[in-house]
């Protein structure tokens, strides 16, 4: 990656600290991913992307910026990519999944806060993530107390525009969310100097829907017994979805799916236990749970998380003759996401029960990032619903450190023996 | 309290557990409050109220219910009492401050959650708080993730109506809050069978404003050097404000203030350090911090908390000829409260700096209930602002247990020596 040093320097990266990070990721990737047996060839593209994470993609962003395009950092599946894309800007998901950034994050935020928030805050103030440095604007949202208040800290380093997500799903909340999307349009028109048109927005909706469809195709293949792809590889693809070029990403997911279609035809029987993960997101490079589970006699076949089904389920309706029509379609689609930030959020239980059937799940792990109140409180109703349906479930609450990995492994082993 | 057992039994109280609680409170009250030297005579009323907490007041509520009035439980200074009062219902603040309920709360909620939420949840499911049992409806709000999701748990035991508080203070958020108040009116009209009128609402606004004015009068007296009343006694009065009969409460606060006016004239010099507490609320019987501080050579002279200034600052404008006008006034007043649930929330810093001057404060303690994200994240900007103004500040994060009391005492001693 030596040819990128000049670019990083220009981006004001802390090169020394960044070198440490750049050294750690490939080692980690090697031991977790490359050691998998019989990986699909189509994963080569995604391997390349993750190993070039701070190189080639950043170069693309910087070149786009030279040509006048804007780069927008986001942190949540509720921020409508369609608006960003339609205004010819580039959307980059900035949620962070490495322990590397926690220490710096804890200098600006309380220790007993979700590691995802501490990590992205640490990455920004540490100047060790070129995506942050490349962003012209960050878009935050009010999905949880931690994020909502972290924007105030982050805003001291980079401009943050905050969208106020409703807390319920009544009729007026849909209207309120439409208003928020309209305000975002105004903000981004101003930033990009471009004007939103029906045609541009329709094209952007089509692009984002095609991306959702490609991921849905991948996930549908995981419903097969055995799944033609590991949970680890699927998770990696979901994580890459947040920052890769959308057209190229779609092409490569579909190419991989063609290969997986063939695998399904020749799939041998497997006695691996099929696991659903439900709960909080797993941002790159948080592979901890999948790594533990898939090193045992089990495979993760579906993630009911923001780096899983919540990201791609439900397409945006493409019918409509005005921007208002399309914004309504966007609001309708985005508020279908069953995040624990809503009260009530019974749709999530329906989703989990449906996936348990569709994906032939043997057991569910309710995964929570430490100190995430909303998902932690939902745990009891999730467990109750699953038990009533005779689906085994266990709760794992953890952060990015590896200190508890042994203990988690032991607990999951016991769980797998029981199911 | 033996003459109340029949009433408690009818309310389905767990009598055995409740006996333990009824035994503990007077002992605690005795050792913390009664041991204070030279207490104002006017405190006798409040002593009586707190010692009759599960007796006489509950009897009043039950008698009111027999006469067809409704009792409404609330948990937050954002729920507009004026609407409840105007519809001839009785508003009771249900936030709970005792370690007694934590264990039960932790059976229904995650352990790493704010003790206030765990305590009121525990009190409800334990059936050891007659206020919960006496309530016809609970009104929750979306001020924090913990509460927002706890309503879902609590709703299984008692009907909860949730008001969606905006997360920001833009123009449209004021409109949104007006809508929420209008929806509350509809809900409570239905529950009470009463119809809101301009006249009734004006009278209720007047009553609540007079209550605010009485508390403001008390707090203004605390600005004197030395304060004619202890922080402990003032806190107790603020806590009682949430559940006592408003007219009687106003009368007794004013009577006490008359006495304090006299005391001010004869006040001797004092070398006690004057402390402001800022942060999270202290629900009854959470007297931990004040007890620790005032057993040292210091006095708490102001609380920038929900059981302090946030409860009574800013009156509701009484001008207006329609319900709409008055609801607008309500929304305007309530959204003036500078709670950490808003982003941004810079008004809180202004408040704290202003109080530091007005109350002649020597130092500030930023008090946080454990796991309260919003206040914990604001701590860094509060500390920065205070330090820039040369006002000493320390952070204390704690729960309801007494385990850390010794350690907190040592830290505060060191802080007092330094300032």
Automatic annotation (TrEMBL), chains A, B:
The keyword Transcription does not apply. It comes from Clostridium tepidiprofundi DSM 19306. Keywords: Coiled coil, Iron, Iron-sulfur, Lyase, Metal-binding. Its EC number is 4.2.1.-. Belongs to the FldB/FldC dehydratase alpha/beta subunit family. PANTHER family: 2-HYDROXYGLUTARYL-COA DEHYDRATASE, D-COMPONENT-RELATED, DEHYDRATASE SUBUNIT MJ0007-RELATED. Residues 174-218 form a coiled coil. This is R-phenyllactate dehydratase beta subunit. Signal peptide: none annotated. It is an enzyme of class 4 (lyase).
